[in-house]
Amino acid sequence: MMTKAFICGCADLRLNEDERAFFEAERPWGLILFRRNVSEPAQVADLVAAFREAVGRADAPVLIDQEGGRVQRLKPPHWPDYPPGRHYGRLFAGDREAGERAAWLGARLIAHDLHRLGIDVDCLPVLDVPSAAGHAVIGDRAYGEDVDTVVTLASAAADGLMSGGVLPVAKHVPGHGRAAADSHLELPRVLASAADLRELDFEPFRRLSALPLAMTAHVVYTAFDEVNPATTSKTVIAEVIRGAIGYDGCLMSDDLSMQALAGALGERARAAFAAGCDLALHCNGDMAEMVDVAANTPELAGEAARRTEAALDARRDPGSLDEQAAREEFKALLAPVGAV
């Protein structure tokens, strides 16, 4: 059965007839959910099931951004609030074991929330290492400001998700931390040297290069490509992401509808695939844009198909979890930093 190499959103709490027909005809690889798609658990589970029915694949991936802090689509009263990554970093700074355990447990509990809804991919962990000059779009989403903290806590979070049956997505490769602009709104340019980037920004991604999925940064790294952001740069994807970092997993673009990218949505999709992305991500649910992306997206084949299949093969059945005990432990662990 045909599957196209893109992930898309939808407009509301339920699929409308146009969306259902579009998914049936174009068969995207996955769906990503946002706050506009969420009201209560039964509704979310129904939406997930409706997407999978429309594309004709019971295992079609459904993604969400559920980091904690500023970036979480599932919120009270139906789901718990989770802290941003930086809270785990603060705990880790004073007690490494407690910080690592809390990062694992927070992700394990998020996976528990998601798995019950049928959501099986979470766009977490954030591997970006922020700099003092960087834009606050990353800010407290990062676990810390040094490689060791980021790698240890991101690894724990990824393992927590996978232990709960949810695939992690490493973001934003090869590193968004130095970007002085918000790529949702404009194209950031990073002027750091290749040596500095390799030592700091790229290193968390290199150490966690075994993660099954990764998301690109809409950031220009002038040391490698003075014009194109990583998402559409053949040089950055080949020499940095696949080369220096050694990432051979499934590489998806960040959201093509972000203002960092120029041109019509179809042009953006073509550029991402030409650069070496395996999957194009389009999030806003705008039907005209989705049609344009789909028209410029190939069927999954070759290395892209191999990588996406390998990512899905990494999914595990969740192990048992005493939810009440886990939440009590999580709260106790984070009490010293006032995070819950």
Distance separating the two termini: 46 Å
Shape: globular
* Major β-sheet annotation: 9 strands, parallel
Overall average residue pLDDT: 96
Cα-atom radius of gyration:
19 Å
- Strand proportion: 5-15%
Instruction: Tell me the number of strands.
Output: 13
Helix fraction by DSSP (H/I, runs of at least 4)? 40-55%
Number of helices: 12
Could you name the ranges where pLDDT drops below 50 across 5 or more consecutive residues? none
- Secondary structure class reads alpha/beta
Could you spell the SSE succession in H and E letters?
A: EHEHEEEHHEHEEEHHEEHEHEHHH
Strand order, biggest sheet? 7-6-3-2-1-13-12-10-8
Structure explained in plain terms:
The chain is α/β, with parallel strands linked by helices and 340 residues long. It has twelve helices and 13 strands. It has helices spanning 17-26, 41-55, 85-94, 96-115, 147-163, 194-201, 203-207, 234-244, 265-275, 287-295, 302-313, 323-334, and strands at 4-8, 28-33, 62-64, 66-68, 71-72, 121-122, 167-168, 170-173, 189-190, 213-216, 220-221, 250-255, 279-281. The strands form three sheets. Strands 7-6-3-2-1-13-12-10-8 form a nine-stranded parallel β-sheet. It has a two-stranded antiparallel ribbon with strand order 4-5.
